[in-house]
Design brief:
Length: 77
């Protein structure tokens, strides 16, 4: 996904997205609900997202934790 975002993002543009933080108390309940609704759920630790972003030549500009989700603002070099 990140390679496609990098490909179409305007130069100097930012990509903002959020992921479920598996360390939050609500994460397990969210995963159970999503599985029940037919979604395939992977609860990857946030450090894995950091590595994935870096591997795609992305730089994390800002993060914002929430009750369930972690917001990322990234820029590609």
């Amino acid at each position: 996904m990140l390679s496609q975002v990098k490909r179409i993002l305007k130069p100097e543009g930012f990509f903002v997205f959020d992921v479920v933080d598996p360390a939050t108390p609500l994460a397990e309940n969210w995963a159970i609900l999503e599985t029940y609704l037919g979604a395939e759920v992977f609860l990857a630790p946030l450090v894995e997202w950091d590595k994935t972003i870096a591997a795609a030549s992305g730089k994390i500009v800002k993060t914002l934790p929430g009750e369930l989700l972690q917001l990322y603002k990234i820029k590609f070099s």
